[in-house]
Amino acid sequence: MSFSLRLIPLLPFAGATVLLLFGRAFSRQWVHLIACLAIGTAFLVSADAFFTALPAAHESGGLHDIVWAWFASGDLKVDLAFRMDALSGVMCLIITFIGTLIHIYSAGYMSHEKDYARFFAYLNLFCGAMLILVLGDSLPVMFVGWEGVGLCSYLLIGFWYGQTANANAGKKAFITNRIGDFGFLLGMFLLFSATNTLDMPGINAAAKAGAAGLTEISWMGQPVAFWAALFLFVGAAGKSAQIPLYVWLPDAMAGPTPVSALIHAATMVTAGVYMVARLGALYLLSPAAMAIVALVGAATAIFAAIIGFAQNDFKKVLAYSTVSQLGFMFAGVGTGAFGSGVFHLYTHAFFKAGLFLCAGSVMHAMSGSGDITKMGGLGRKIPWTHRVFFVCWLAICGVPIFSGFFSKDAIVAGAFATHVFGESLSWVGPVVGTVLLLAALCTSFYMSRLYFLVFSGECRADHETQHHIHESPIEMVGPLVVLAVGAGLGGLIGFPGGLFGHEEWNLLGHWLEPVVGPELHIPHAVEVTVMAASTAVAFVGIFLARAFFGGGYREPAHQFARSMPGFVALVRDKFRVDELYNFFIVRPLRFVSRGLFVIVDRIVIDKAMVEVPAAIVGVFGRAARWFQAGDAQRYLATFAIGVAAIFYLATRPPAPDAFKVTIQGTAVDVDARGVAGTAGRTLLYDFDFEADGTVDRKGSSPTAHFVYEGTGTYVIRVTIKDPRWGTSTRLEQKVRIQ
Amino acid sequence: MHQLHTQTVGLPATITFAILAGLTVIGALFTITRRNPVVAVISLVGTFFALAGVYASLSAHFLAILQILVYAGAIMVLFIFVVMILNRDEITRVAARGMVRRGLGVVAAGYVVWLLASVVANSSATPLLGGPLSEPGADFGTVASVGASLFTDFMFPFEAVSLLLLVAVVGGLVVSRSEKQEDDAEETARRRAQVATEIRPESMVGGPTDATANHEAAHH
Amino acid sequence: MPTLYYLYLSFALFFIGTAGVLLRRNALIVLMAIELQLNAGNLALLAFSRSLGDLKGHVFAFFVIALAAAEAAVGLAILVGMYRTRQTINLDEVATMKR
Fold first, then answer.
1. Which residue in chain B is spatially nearest to A628 when comparing CA positions?
2. Which of C91, C96, C97 sits opposite A633 (nearest CB)?
């Protein structure tokens, strides 16, 4: 089944191109109109493909669009091809729909910005790259999108590049991602050597068939599939901000808030989750890799959630929350519940985008400040933002009926019920489930803290700021409301109908089934228990937070801070992971780099390879300068010398290098015939057999006969003369007469 | 046959040739050794006159006249003009730098000339070099005979040479007058020349007088 | 007179001309030395022409004189231009193509 899938990424790319080239010439209205139209149309095309064309194509592996053969080398043949199946279709819809909302929101949020066109161009560029990432049919095409979103992320984090901190944050994100990308590439190479293909359906098919290349033991007792999966997970951990590569994401909040919402919450950071789900069959081949994914996800979930307790910047709280929620997703896909992972990805996209946009709206109201210690009581002043935040807050806390409840519940229940780890690793599932429940409690607590500190009680900001607090314009509030509706009711799309004997109520699971396999079967008892538990932790978290922070900082909060000052400081400093990395990675690297700079660059390259050859050439150059003085007369003198040399060589009689001497007793025969050039020339030969100055034989004959009087060593001297030119050549040879 | 002509060379002819050749060489040496360009030009004119005499002794009457008209007349006047425009007395006679290479160049040129001369000397017995192969006809070297040859066999080269002269005229104009920068420099040079003329006009009168004196000295 | 004496004279003139071209720094003198070289050539042409009784040598000599005129005209024009732009006609001071 074919469908012009290429249109979907092409539209945002076209928008980006137009805006980058001509954006400066357009008015602001035109700029955001073009950008929103580009992404909005992409959404409509995606929706058309997903809802009308895709259902008919489930059997054949989804919609397929080959644009052109990209490259072929030996066995490696890669097409620039796109594929939309249920998984990439859902991703496409999320990206284009939320992307459109955020574009609209940005029109309001960035309205005072100088580089308006540049912002929208990057935003469009990002959407195009992200769509290539999800639609790419093979790993190389996906990698193009993967790098493209990394680039856009870098560009947008450093959008306000005037401030060094922002530029540095961009660099940090980029470099951290490079580490992950290296893993991605290694995984890709490994997969190609094992399966001889880079098409993802081909890889999945090989994995499902248990191809020998993937299952053979390669290193440390693990099969190739494990290493491939692990390397790819390193890439995913970089892109999706998992331990240990999560450090860039909180810093990425330096970018404009819509960017944080779109790239660093809803879409790009979920690429890793998407990739693992996409190559689910490969991961299922290696329980150990799955366990690592699940454990890293769970660890990240709780670790980031704890850091979230003590952050005082609105966006930083949300950033750690994002890291934590991404951990949930990885735990989901790591326990084999790919559908649940993607489900959480989807609900998270809505409520986290909503939260970020609320953050933007709040900061907009607070004159740009994101310090929650200076907020409070904003609920009355910005009612629409408050309402939206309220809904999204309940969603992320996992309050029943709201979207986060269903997706989080599906992941936790999946962790308890999973069988993918086999006998030896069966402990992983329950451990992950328990940790996730704890993380959910933490999530509920820190999000509630955020909510109470910002919206309840009295405002702690200074008078001037308070005076300016105002609700945001309609183009910002509109998308917020839409996102709130999605965050509130979007979970119903993955309603756990199995509980009521109606599996088909789980619409999302039904869609994804052809791609990621049937939903995990979860026993009713587990399902009900987990639901009860997660509802409980949600409310416990909220009430605990209310006790600490309801209506502002309360006594228990201060008491807690006083009782454990060291721990609180450690959490506030994000467990000092950045400092740790700085000490163990950045500083040694700098040391080595400095050494390389001084030894290799300064000495080996600059001196030995550049300056020394230059000096040698310079010596010749100075010598040649004497010759090329620019003085025409001296050139002419050289010319005259050359002419004389040619005359000398041409007029000299041609002579053999050595003449022939034949000795018989005391008699010698000498033959001094020239080798060449004697034709037409009359030459005279003088033979002096004793080299004593007296010519013994002379004439035009080149040969001569002579008899020595006694034995001994003699020198025969032959002088060849050209009578016309008056020139001559003299040859000498030693002979021994016995 | 050719022996006949060699033997008919009488003493007067030999003396005439010796004098003319001597004047030519002395004039040439003066040309390249004098400091004052005006002296050099006059010496050259003397050389050309002597050469015209040599040409005449070779029965090249037309060329002898041409030598005097074109060389001693037109070209040398041009040189004199330039000398007057520039009005520069040379301070150092020879170039200051690169004397080693220049000297070697002169030695090399001498070697080549010596080689050629030795060929001539070694071949002095041949009819071509030993003497004229034939007695020239009455019209040999006259304007009529050379002109006939020019306008019949060498018609095309003759036209080509006329074109060459035209190009040279245009080229001379272009080279001596081009950009504004040059015009400015021209202005400066003219003002300088003006000043110089006003200060010492006598140097221009003195030059030719000296040269004439040298010329006279060489003659006797 | 035998032809060879004319040739000796021609060689002598040519050598003197060459020496002048190589050694003198005044461009004007150098141009005159070039004229000497050309005349040396002319003399050889005329000597051989006389010896062979062939007028072609005269024709060539005629062309050489025309060429010498053209050369002198252009050469002197260059010399004047050179003096304008550099205020010198010393060849060893004119060592660069640009001004």
1. B98
2. C91
pLDDT, tens digit (0-9, with 9 covering 90-100), for A159-205 = 988 888 899 999 999 999 999 999 999 999 999 988 888 998 889 88
Neighbours of chain C (3+ CB pairs under 8 A): A, B
φ, ψ of residue A457 to 5 degrees: the values are 75, -150
Taking the CA of residue B121 and the nearest CA in chain A, the distance in Å comes to: 9
> Which chain C residues contact residue A637 at CB under 8 A?
22
Contacts of C85 in chain B (CB under 8 A): 181-182, 185
Cis peptide before B157 (omega within 30 of 0): no
Question: Is the predicted pLDDT of residue B61 greater than 80, yes or no?
Answer: yes
Instruction: Judge whether A644 is closer than 8 Å to chain C, CB to CB.
Output: no
CB neighbour burial string for A142-159, b if at least 16 within 10 angstroms, e if fewer: bbbbbbbbbbbbbbbbbb
Q: Which residue has the higher pLDDT, B44 or A624?
A: B44
Quote the number of domains for chain B.
1
The answer to whether residue C27 sits within a structural domain is yes
Residues of chain A with pLDDT > 70, as a percent, come to 99
Which A-chain residues 173-202 have CB contacts (< 8 A) with chain B? none
Contact criterion met (CB < 8 Å) for A633 and C18? no
Residue C20 within any structural domain of the chain: yes
- Min distance B70 CA to chain A CA atoms (Å): 28
Taking the Cβ of residue A630 and every Cβ of chain B, the question of whether any pair is shorter than 8 Å is answered with: no
Q: Do C19 and B149 touch (CB under 8 A)?
A: no
Instruction: Please write the tens of the pLDDT for every residue from A454-489.
Output: 888 888 888 888 888 888 888 888 999 999 999 988
Mutate to test the interface with A, among B32, B99, B115 (most CBs of A within 10 A): B115
User: Residue A729, class by beta-carbon neighbours within 10 Å (0-12 exposed, 13-18 middle, 19+ buried)?
Assistant: middle
Whether residue C86 lies inside any domain: the answer is: yes
Q: A157: phi > 0 → left, psi -120 to 50 → alpha, else beta; which?
A: alpha
The domain spanning residue C20 has which CATH number? 1.10.287.3510
pLDDT, mean over chain C: 88
Which domain, by its residues, includes C78?
3-93
Q: Which of A629, A630, A633 comes nearest C22 by C-beta?
A: A633
Residue A184 tokens, joined: 């991605």
pLDDT at C81 over 70: yes
Give per-residue pLDDT as tens, A334-377.
998 888 899 999 999 999 999 999 999 898 888 878 888 888 88
Burial (Cβ within 10 Å: 0-12, 13-18, ≥19) of residue A73: exposed
pLDDT value of residue B205: 45
Total domains in chain C come to 1
State the CATH number of the domain containing residue B32: 1.20.120.1200
Closest-CA distance, B3 to chain C, in angstroms, reads: 10
- The secondary element (H helix, E strand) that includes residue A447 is helix A428-455
**Does residue C99 sit within a domain?**
no
Question: What span, in angstroms and rounded, lies between the C-alpha atoms of B74 and B71?
Answer: 6
B19 lies in which domain range?
Answer: 2-219
- How many Cβ atoms are within 10 Å of A380's Cβ, its own excluded? 10
